[in-house]
Specification:
Shape of chain A: elongated
Strand content of chain A: under 5%
Helix content of chain B: over 70%
Order of helices and strands of chain B: HHHHHHHHHHHH
CATH class of chain A: Mainly Alpha
Number of helices of chain A: 4
Number of strands of chain B: 0
Distance between the termini of chain B: 44 Å
Largest sheet of chain A: none
Number of strands of chain A: 0
Strand content of chain B: under 5%
Shape of chain B: globular
Largest sheet of chain B: none
Oligomer: heterodimer
Radius of gyration of chain A: 21 Å
Radius of gyration of chain B: 24 Å
Structural class of chain A: mainly alpha
Largest interface: A-B, 82 and 104 residues
Number of domains of chain A: 1
CATH architecture of chain A: Orthogonal Bundle
Structural class of chain B: mainly alpha
């Protein structure tokens, strides 16, 4: 059930990503998509009363969480925020140059900008 | 409990879709990160929960700086058609070019407004919505069902204390069985730092001054932060040193050490970090992490070492990773507060 909620979350964020006009909101939705993917992997093999895989003699216990997705997801979380900072930096240098964060305006402006540069050459 | 949290989680996503004001989006994002963290804890993974909680802080700060700059630029544009010289990016410091860009932008805005009106709701929301629902249904239909094969899980859980040592299975996996992933994660962080430095509008590496944090005027906040500062640093070192027996480890400890520098900035307005030295140190730490992992794990030395040295290996490796993550996030944070925020 939790993995279905995670997939639903992923596609809600996908909907937000393709309908938003603002570039900032697009970046926020990529962050949400990432969280959904992480929740999906962590919820694999979920039972109620699950305990973390920490301690000794874990093989005798039944409700121990799977440690492998957890180890992979920690790295995924750190990589996620590193990539998000790159996205925000690109966005900030973009709106310093063109003074806009709207996708449609940006397309027209960058098109004109290219034309101007070609004319100057 | 967890379903209640996840319903709130979905509700927050809808809130973000409908929200127009930027500053509310960042508040929703922080709440979202908090709820994710609690959900991860309930799902039985305190390590991921801790990492997500620390990451929420950093994402929030980076987005706040982005929104602040955006708002400031918009404000400047409304109040004065001519930008002050200091605010200009180096590309368009010519006044005429700025005027031309503004005129062009006005035209572009008019054109897009016409376009937005011309597009009906059906085109804008219904078609993407139907497309998303279709993809969701396809995903659900082809989701593999049945019980997951517990072979690998049992293998790891029964043998990690014998092969690697320690009491935390997650740490044992990311430091020994899958140390490749950890090395590539460290590499991605190095590349992210390089990319942020090179894609920024400014080519400066080191600046001596910037905007003050304006926290100094609130006496209660400052006195609380001064106490918290030390606790955060201690907690970071605690997580690194005990990563092999309790929840925590290099990643989370490194993030907390970097969070110490946020507190330090808020209280003392410090910009004079020797950032070029930190960059050099990050590279060296990355190199030593790779060499250490290759010597101990890839060459199979770990199988011949007595179990005491396994613990030493895990502590040293956690320490190196923690230092690496702390340096990486310190550089990113410094870039944002000192250079991007100007």
């Amino acid at each position: 059930m939790i993995n279905i909620i995670a997939i639903l979350m992923f596609f809600i964020s996908f909907f937000g990503l393709i309908t938003s006009h603002s570039m900032i909101k697009s970046i926020v939705f990529t962050v949400l998509m990432e969280s959904a993917v992480i929740l999906f992997f962590l919820s694999l093999g979920f039972q109620s009363g699950i305990i973390p895989p920490i301690g000794v003699n874990l093989e005798n216990l039944e409700h121990v969480a799977d440690p492998l997705p957890q180890a992979l997801m920690i790295t995924a979380i750190i990589i996620g925020v590193a990539v998000t900072t790159i996205k925000i930096t690109i966005l900030m240098s973009f709106f310093r140059k063109f003074k806009t964060t709207d996708w449609d305006e940006a397309r027209i402006l960058s098109h004109h900008h290219e034309e101007d540069e070609n004319n100057n050459d | 409990m967890i379903y209640l949290l996840l319903v709130l989680w979905l509700f927050l996503a809808f809130c973000i879709i409908g929200e127009k004001r930027n500053i509310r989006i960042v508040i929703y994002l922080c709440v979202f990160s908090f709820i994710s963290s609690i959900s991860f804890l309930i799902l039985g993974s305190p390590d991921a929960a801790m990492a997500e909680a620390a990451i929420g802080t950093f994402t929030g700060i980076f987005f706040i700086i982005c929104f602040e700059k955006h708002r400031e630029l918009r404000f400047n544009e409304k109040n004065a058609s001519v930008f002050s010289r200091d605010e200009d990016p180096p590309d368009i410091d010519d006044e005429r070019a700025v005027q031309a860009l503004l005129k062009l932008r006005k035209k572009a805005r008019a054109r897009t407004r016409g376009k937005h009106n011309a597009k009906s709701i059906l085109q804008r929301y219904l078609a993407p919505g139907l497309f998303s629902i279709l993809l969701f249904i396809l995903f659900i239909v082809f989701l593999p069902g049945g019980e997951a094969n517990p072979y690998l899980r049992n293998q790891f859980l029964t043998q990690f204390s014998e092969h690697v040592g320690g009491e935390n299975a997650v740490t044992a996996i990311y430091l020994a069985y899958r140390v490749y992933d950890t090395l590539f994660e460290a590499l991605v962080l190095v590349i992210a730092v390089v990319a942020v430095i090179h894609m920024s509008y400014s080519s400066d590496i080191l600046v001596k001054g910037g905007k003050p944090s304006h926290v100094g005027q609130y006496v209660v906040v400052v006195s609380v932060l001064r106490v918290i500062c030390a606790i955060v640093l201690l907690f970071g070192f605690y997580l690194i040193m005990n990563g092999h027996i309790t929840a925590g480890g290099g990643f989370q400890g490194g993030l907390f050490i970097a969070a110490f520098f946020i507190c330090r900035y808020l209280v003392y307005d410090i910009y004079d970090l020797p950032i070029t030295k930190v960059i050099r140190m990050e590279e060296l730490v990355f190199l030593s992490t790779v060499i250490f992992a290759v010597l101990i794990v890839f060459l199979g030395t770990i199988n011949h070492l007595p179990p005491v040295f396994h613990i030493v290996y895990m502590i040293v490796m956690n320490f190196l990773i923690g230092l690496k993550v702390a340096c990486g996030f310190l550089i990113l944070f410094y870039r944002y507060i000192a250079i991007e925020r100007r």
